[in-house]
UniProtKB/TrEMBL annotation:
It is a peripheral membrane protein. It is an enzyme of class 7 (translocase). This is ABC-type polar-amino-acid transporter. It comes from Kineococcus radiotolerans (strain ATCC BAA-149 / DSM 14245 / SRS30216). Its main location: membrane.
Amino acid sequence: MSAVAAVGTASEQPVVRLEGVHKRFGALEVLRGIDLTVAAGTVTVVLGASGSGKSTLLRTVNHLEKVDAGIVEVNGELIGYRRSGRHLRELHEREVLRQRSRIGFVFQHFNLFPHLTVLENVVEAPVSAQRRRRSEVEPEARALLARVGLSDKAGEYPRRLSGGQQQRVAIARALALKPSLVLFDEPTSALDPELVGEVLDVIRDLAVSGTTMVVVTHEIGFAREVADRVVFLHEGTVVEEGSAAQVLDAPRHERTRAFLAKVL
Ligand code: ADP
Ligand code: MG
């Protein structure tokens, strides 16, 4: 990277910034001081054993979980709170919903609305959460369905689709909000092996087009291919972080090596 490019990158505001994030459930401290920065247009893959805090970490970013300490910022905006002098005050639910509506979230189990058609699933949030006009949203929703290869399924109900198709609808639905950030929580873990590829293809396409993403996944080959950064979480702390080549091919930490030996 040239010096000029390096300076340009450093001065750009990160899309996500976590600083000293702690979260506990009762006696269990699930996140123990997480610092994390996600630059615009990059893909961050989060790895870690089951129970290491990956889902909780993602959920703090769009305020599905409140943090006990530390700060979460998206596009420079504090999530869930506003500054009031030296104190932080909680935002109203309405404000939280506004913040959340700018962050796409794709879940392991798709979470489509079963009583709505595929098209209605994609149209719903922009119309109800963002108060956009249906006539404007619908053509965009159809274009998104085309992008994930499901133009012909617009009128179907989710139960009539395969898991891979349902997850592609869920991705189209997340994109309909025109999010500045998309979070994926093990998007292929619930799929039969033969359906994993079609979903990863869609996510790869988003990566190529510069969508800022944080992806929790155990698909190491995919991580090696698309991740700009890989973060390895162990018991609520980031024990290792770096380029895919560094973390996946030359892990420095014993925990990372042990984890990779199991999943590879
Ligand atoms: P991962 O996604 O890495 O598997 P999670 O973030 O889901 O890990 O969970 C981390 C730990 O926090 C686990 O021990 C889990 O049981 C616990 N946990 C997660 N959510 C809750 C909750 N709402 N209440 C109590 N414990 C929770
Ligand atoms: Mg999880």
